[in-house]
Amino acid sequence: MHYLLLGMMLLCAFAANAGMDPQQLKQTIAQRLGVRVFLIDETPVPGLFLLGTSQGLIYSDARGDYVLQGSMLDLGHGMKNLTMLDQQRQRRLALAQIGEQRMQLKAPHERHHLTLFTELGCRNCRATLDELPMLQARGVSVQLLPVLGRFADLADAQALWCDPALLGELSLSDRLPAAGCNEILAHHIGLSQWLGIKASPSWVLPNGDLVRGYQRPEQLLKLLDHIDAPANPSSSAS
Q1: Which residues of 114-150 are buried (b: 16+ CB within 10 A; e: fewer)?
Q2: Nearest to 162 by CA among 140, 189, 141, 135
Q3: Residues 146, 150, 153: CA angle, nearest 5 degrees
Q4: Are 158 and 182 in contact (CB under 8 A)?
Q5: How many Å from the N-terminal Cα to the C-terminal Cα in the chain?
Q6: pLDDT per residue over 170-195, tens digit each?
Q7: Are 209 and 28 in contact (CB under 8 A)?
Q8: What pLDDT score was predicted for residue 177?
Q9: CA nearest neighbour of 124 among 33, 237, 211
Q10: Pairing status of strand 67-68 against strand 56-60
Q11: Integer angstrom CA distances of residue 127 from 30, 43, 146, 188, 214
């Protein structure tokens, strides 16, 4: 699938500078922990590497013999939470892979841009989808990405999300194309797995913060108005 190829590209790009074998580390972690590894990066601590997995961020030595989970704080710079910053960066990086083939509700006079990860059937998901026109009217464009429910099947999700009549009540400016829709959807679901998004709905803000669960439009607007977005946000509060 595309999202696995994306992970391979990220790992290969890192290999030239890391002085270790990222593919071997990826395989070792997958075998020992049963999680996919999509990203490997260096940390300020020599010999300790950051791994972006389908279950979130972890830290490992070069051989995958020792693993840490938690927050890395930079005590020399005001206890800066490096793990939180890496989570934000990883979300922005993942969403930058979406491209033009996506579902989007575009605001006529856009002030903000959000990404919504959602299922289609849960109660809070339906309430959130019903309120999207309120965000659109207030200048917020929303990109929609699928979350595969705990007991959901990929084929069932593809049948739902690739239905041309899906969300006909919304004025979507972009829809998934009929040709290749299943493959595109698998890639999008892979992104949600890369980011470890399980709660539905979940919002990713322009700075990469993750906000889980139902949020009233007024709450989202308040968050957006207080964000200093990156220069080139791709859309995306742990």
Answers
A1: bbbbbbbeeeebeebbeebeebbebebbbbbbbbbbe
A2: 189
A3: 70
A4: yes
A5: 28
A6: 878 888 888 888 888 888 888 888 78
A7: no
A8: 85
A9: 211
A10: antiparallel
A11: 37, 41, 16, 22, 8
- Structure-token pair, residue 23: 């593919």
Contact (Cβ atoms closer than 8 angstroms) between residue 105 and residue 192? no
Distance CA 48, CA 61 (A): 5
Nearest to 146 by CA among 127, 132, 125: 125
Nearest to 210 by CA among 89, 99, 38, 121: 89
HSE value, Cβ hemisphere, 13 Å, CA-based, for 18: 25
Distance CA 210, CA 229 (A): 14
Identity (one letter) of the amino acid at 150?
Answer: R
**Cβ contacts of 237 within 8 Å, gap of 6 or more:** 205, 209, 210, 211, 223
- Map tokens 């959602």 to a residue: 118
pLDDT digits (tens, 9 = 90+) for 27-47: 999 999 998 898 899 999 999
The token pair at 227 is 């964000």
